[in-house]
């Protein structure tokens, strides 16, 4: 039912490269991240990747002829209102389409994976029932589920049974604890913020950097995180080294000048917009519109979260005039021959172009599968070795510890910290870092 071929199966959506169909906002991109404000007790903002030591051990004792992978995917197929053409359902149909294509390629190479797909129905009770009935006990890897409570149950099962659990959709620091079998593929909010401030720090002086937000607690909390991180990476003894510019909606909508003091004397400015939530979309648009009007002779570089790329409201003039640099976890290089090959294969098989979800599913299975083949059932212990670039992302898996764990003795979980900075140049988006 799910993979009946035909051009109507996969919806095309807006893509800012115009010639390609990828960005699929059937559900807003950030809904899979479940990001929250950064508390003062959050993990330390300073993150330095450890030196990678090549592993030369013999892993033959941990390898199998066939690996079993369980996938919790919320198809909701038992729902009487289920519609394969509905946006939310299409997200996971496309994701699984990418998974299937990757599995076929592994099979052709002689690597065999037995995959069982379970409809989680976005219900933690459904997930709990499958765990309690022993339906997941033979898996070497479990992917998902999508919903937070079901994922927490699965992560705890993985911890007890020593089974790797992959979270491809949700980013949260509170799913599990002291669990080296839990791997979160979505970078956290703090990883996004660190990527922004680190790049700004390398390319601008302190007097050129401005944090822009509203005079409300949520924005002030974000500013504090940036200030602490900026001070730490520069070995300053105290924070508040960066200029903070608070603005209100009235000045954005009705005043003649919202940023009258910001561009005096021209020069160069790096504007950081830390807002990520779609509830802030109108505010973000208004800030960009006024910056575009008021920048004068100043050279402006706006840094921000994935919403700057995903939002339908942002004009291409903003991308060009404000040199918008967006932090994203997934980005496709259309000149990559592997991308072109994948698109041809996908179209030949399904009669439609792949969405971003199809790319994501394809990359995820290639990442898991290649490491299973290389290291065997304990592959999660060696994921830090993987530095491959997949079709739309890479995986920089790091061990996450509690801030109080100064001896680094207890792993909370594993997290992918890879992020790209992209900018619109010429007539397309390109990766700049």
TrEMBL record:
Superkingdom to which the source organism belongs: Bacteria
GO cellular component terms, semicolon-separated: membrane
Pfam families, A to Z: ANF_receptor
InterPro entries: ANF_lig-bd_rcpt (IPR001828), Peripla_BP_I (IPR028082)
Keyword Zinc-finger: no
Presence of the UniProt keyword Transmembrane in the record: yes
Span of domain Receptor ligand binding region: 99-200
Sorted UniProt keywords: Membrane, Transmembrane, Transmembrane helix
Protein localization: Membrane
CDD domains according to UniProt: PBP1_ABC_transporter_LIVBP-like (cd06268)
Main location: membrane
Signal peptide extent: none
Protein name as catalogued: Receptor ligand binding region domain-containing protein
Native organism taxonomy: Bacteria, Pseudomonadati, Bacteroidota, Saprospiria, Saprospirales
């Amino acid at each position: 039912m799910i993979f009946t071929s035909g051009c109507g199966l996969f919806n095309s959506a807006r893509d800012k490269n115009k010639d390609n169909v990828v960005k699929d906002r059937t559900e807003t991109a950030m809904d899979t991240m479940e990001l929250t404000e950064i508390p003062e007790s959050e993990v330390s903002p300073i993150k330095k990747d450890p030196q990678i030591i090549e592993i030369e051990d013999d892993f033959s004792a941990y390898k199998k002829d066939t690996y079993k992978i369980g996938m919790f995917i919320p198809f909701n197929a038992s729902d009487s209102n289920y519609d394969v053409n509905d946006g939310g359902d299409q997200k996971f149909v496309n994701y699984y389409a990418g998974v299937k294509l990757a599995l076929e390629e592994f099979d052709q190479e002689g690597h065999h994976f037995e995959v069982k797909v379970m409809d989680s129905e976005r219900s933690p009770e459904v997930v709990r029932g499958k765990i309690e009935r022993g339906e997941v006990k033979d898996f070497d890897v479990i992917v998902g589920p999508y919903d937070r409570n079901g994922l927490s149950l699965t992560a705890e099962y993985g911890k007890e049974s020593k089974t790797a659990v992959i979270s491809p959709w949700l980013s949260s620091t509170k799913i599990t604890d002291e669990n080296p079998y839990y791997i979160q593929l979505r970078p956290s909010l703090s990883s996004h913020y660190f990527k922004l401030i680190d790049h700004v720090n390398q390319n601008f002086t302190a007097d050129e950097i401005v944090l822009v937000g509203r005079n409300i607690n949520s924005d002030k909390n974000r500013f504090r995180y940036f200030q602490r991180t900026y001070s730490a990476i520069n070995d300053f003894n105290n924070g508040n080294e960066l200029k903070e510019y608070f603005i209100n909606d009235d000045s954005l909508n009705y005043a003649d000048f919202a940023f009258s003091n910001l561009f005096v004397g021209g020069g160069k400015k790096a504007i950081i917009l830390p807002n990520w939530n779609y509830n802030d979309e109108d505010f973000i648009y208004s800030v960009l519109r006024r910056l575009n009007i008021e920048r004068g002779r100043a050279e402006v570089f706006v840094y921000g979260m994935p919403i700057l790329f995903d939002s339908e409201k942002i004009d291409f003039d903003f991308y060009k005039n404000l040199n918008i640099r967006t932090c994203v976890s997934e980005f496709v290089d259309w000149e990559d021959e592997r991308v072109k090959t994948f698109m041809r294969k996908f179209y030949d098989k399904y009669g439609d172009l792949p969405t971003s979800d199809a790319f994501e599913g394809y990359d995820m299975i290639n990442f898991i599968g290649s490491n299973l083949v290389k290291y065997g059932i304990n592959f999660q212990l060696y994921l830090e070795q993987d530095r491959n670039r997949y079709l739309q992302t890479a995986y920089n898996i790091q061990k996450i510890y509690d801030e109080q764990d100064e001896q680094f003795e207890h792993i909370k979980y594993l997290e992918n910290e890879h992020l790209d900075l992209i900018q619109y140049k010429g007539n397309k988006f390109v990766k700049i870092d």
